[in-house]
Amino acid sequence: MAEENKEKQETLSRRRFLRNTGFTVGGLAVGGILGSLVPRGKDDNKNNPPAPQDQDFNQALMYFTPEQFRITEAATERIFPEDDNGPGAKALGVAYFIDHQLAGDWGFNARDYMQSPFFPGEKVQGYQGRLKRRDIFDIGLRELQNYSNTVGKKNFEELSGDEQDKILKDFEEDKVNLTTLSPSGFFQLLRSATLEGVYSDPLYGGNKNMDGWKMRNYPGSQMAYAEIIEKDFQKIKPQSLQSHMKH
Amino acid sequence: MARKLPKADVVLVGVGWTGGIIASELTKKGLKVVGLERGKERKTEDYFMVHDELRYALRYDLFQDLSKETITFRGNERIRALPMRQYGSFLLGDGLGGSGVHWNGQTYRFLPYDFEIRSKTIEKYGQNKIPAEMSIQDWGITYDQLEPYYDKFEKTCGISGEENPHPGAGKRSDKFPTPPMKKSPAIKMFETAAKNLKLNPYMMPSANLSESYKNPDGISRAACQYCGYCERFGCEYGAKADPVVTVIPVAKKTGNFEIRTHSHVRRILHTGNKATGVLYVDTTTGEEIEQPADIVVLTSYVFNNVRLLLMSDLGRPYDPATGTGVIGKNYAYQVMKGNAVGFFNDKEFSTFAGAGSLGIVLDDYNGDNFDHSNLGFIHGGSISLTQTGLRPIQNNPVPKGTPAWGKEFKQQSLKYANRFLSVGGQGSSMPFKHHYLDLDPTYKDAFGDPLIRITFDFEDQDRNLAVFLAEKSAQILKEMGANHIDSLKELGPYDITTYQSTHNTGGVIMGADPSTSAVNNYLQMWDVDNLFVVGAANFAHNSGYNPTGTVGALAYRCAEGIDKYRQTGGQVV
Ligand SMILES: Cc1cc2nc3c(=O)[nH]c(=O)nc-3n(C[C@H](O)[C@H](O)[C@H](O)COP(=O)(O)OP(=O)(O)OC[C@H]3O[C@@H](n4cnc5c(N)ncnc54)[C@H](O)[C@@H]3O)c2cc1C
Ligand code: SF4
Hints:
The structure holds two protein chains of two kinds. Chain A is mostly helical. Chain A is 45% helix and 2% strand. Chain A has helices at residues 2-21, 31-35, 40-44, 66-79, 89-92, 94-102, 133-151, 161-172, 183-199, 211-215, and strands spanning 24-25, 28-29. In chain A, helix 8 packs across helix 9 (183-199). The longest helix of chain A is centred in the N-terminal third of the chain and has 20 residues, at 2-21. Chain A starts with a helix and ends in a 32-residue tail after the last helix. In chain A, 34% of the residues are buried. In chain B, 22% of the residues lie in helices and 20% in strands. Iron/sulfur cluster binds next to strand 15 of chain B.
């Protein structure tokens, strides 16, 4: 319990710190920016600080701005929403997963062929753009925000679920006119990254508590199935890669 | 100026399945062999954290780094070829063991029909059955001639299997080294359904061992654990036959095999029509090095086997306008999309478990095992149900008509996660005059060398075959009791963005006639006696099976050819 109190105090004092220092930096009024560093959800739960077991040091940003993070969190939640089966993308940490992926090799397309010349090709020839995945997210999320403000008069994350779905569908079906990138290309990237975040090993920051796996009775990383391969379906308690570290 | 090293008896370009087999056979005979491998060393201990779908299956940890080298592709000669910037249709091996590390291990023999496809098609259906542009030809070898080498490769791997009951299959000189894999409930359902339909199912020949096994070289390996992380992953048990745990240690033990990793070969050196060695770059230092050798063997997979010949001005490049020349000719692939998915409402399967070559298959619609008189294609494909381990990121099928995201997608994909089975055809691929490999005029690799260019698309032959195999697959699923079946209705154009198979073939084809083939039936170049090229590049067309059983057999035959050449010189046929 002593631990818990200490953590609570730290969270609170950090929040106070941000509040108190957030008004001016070098004479510029930047309170808005610093204020938005405090995740909204947490702010509303002032009287219900997270229990210590929920403290996840992996849940901080490596690449996204807070605004990009919020849009991603809202959009991925529509792609894989919370329902009776269990948590959606938001609670599974998918936006953190995507943030962390963009910060590394994948975000830089480090293992893709990125030599010029660039020509538009046939669909069957695959992606031929010069934009890297982090550029695609920067631009795509901004376009999603602009489009929301144009058609919904609000930021994407402030729209209702149905309205958000409509916006995403317009991207999916290339109904948005963009000169910067392919709306459906961005949507497909977002969709596949969402599924990766839901179902990859929790070591990457998504699939929190292996809940993605639990919802579909996927056992994660097991050493062997030789004993069950001939038998009818059975549930097996899932295990993540971390379990191998104890060997 | 490149630094010149002392001469070796044999230099190998690439140390995957073919390189490993040649190395083990020749070093046992006392030859000094140098194996140049562009990638890194690999060993079983590397796979401690291997059950990681994201890292290995989606971020392609074990595969060739495309930022350094890729291929370019166009559907036909009228359009501009563009680089494959990201992985899709096939995956390229890299590092010791090559693709042999992360393959599934489905290890077949081709049909007797395959090796004499042109003669047998004409004999039965007449010349007109073969479309004008279709460039099928006999392989210059028969099944019976190749049989001893199949047997050898199967014994090296310890292939687990049972006799193929179809009379169209070739005769075996010996039984499988180990019994078939265990049967899962889904496999039993397929077996019963196929038998009800009067078809001839048999357990898929598997390089994942059904039981522990000691091979003729004295290598012992443990049994497969059905871990479900096989294709695209290395085996943490050494149960999957892979060059690193079979042929490479045998070669090393002789003391005659020197492996140099991080060694990227750029050219085959030659004077007149004799190869003198190879030029390579040590990628850790950037130094250019010349390795002279009496015999050069290309074992660098289809694309680099062809690319190195063309870049080194060896052999006669293929000209699609005239159909003459041979290097790059008869590129073929596979028809993998003729399949069906069955959804079951009240049955759940442990399909998260499985092994790379756990499956059941039938050949009733493969080769010329059925009458083609009224069909718009020749050859056919095997039809199988495999249980290779359904990992959750890549396996989220939903019945047709379900949205691809959102509430309903989540619900349905969770519901069916353990309630669907796929049955699919592995369709053969016939060569056409205008399908070929050559050097790309624009795009370069990290060393400034031209990339290989693929010109390939599906033809009527493939479209008809795909729909045929999809219908047969759906029939089997129906008999298995699926509540809802989605199957392919039409094969679109060849699309490089979706994974189909790493079964690329052709480009350095074998044959009996030097004017229409690049190598003889010992895989010796017709034009350069001391240069051997081996792999699926030798296939004159691709059959309705995975290729590596035949690739392994050809590698054993090639090793024998090299030994003959060393003794007699000249052409060994
Ligand atoms: C995901 C996957 C699954 C597969 N599953 C099956 C299956 O179930 N059944 C089946 O029959 N087949 C399967 N295959 C195909 C099988 O792996 C190949 O047929 C087999 O490995 C080919 O052997 P190879 O020696 O020709 O090429 P590889 O094994 O790929 O070896 C070629 C080696 O050459 C090296 N190399 C290339 N260029 C150079 C250069 N310039 N300099 C130096 N080194 C070079 C590469 O790094 C590589 O290590 C699969 C392939 C993949 C990718
Ligand atoms: S399925 Fe079997 S052979 Fe394949 S990696 Fe797992 S244990 Fe090895």
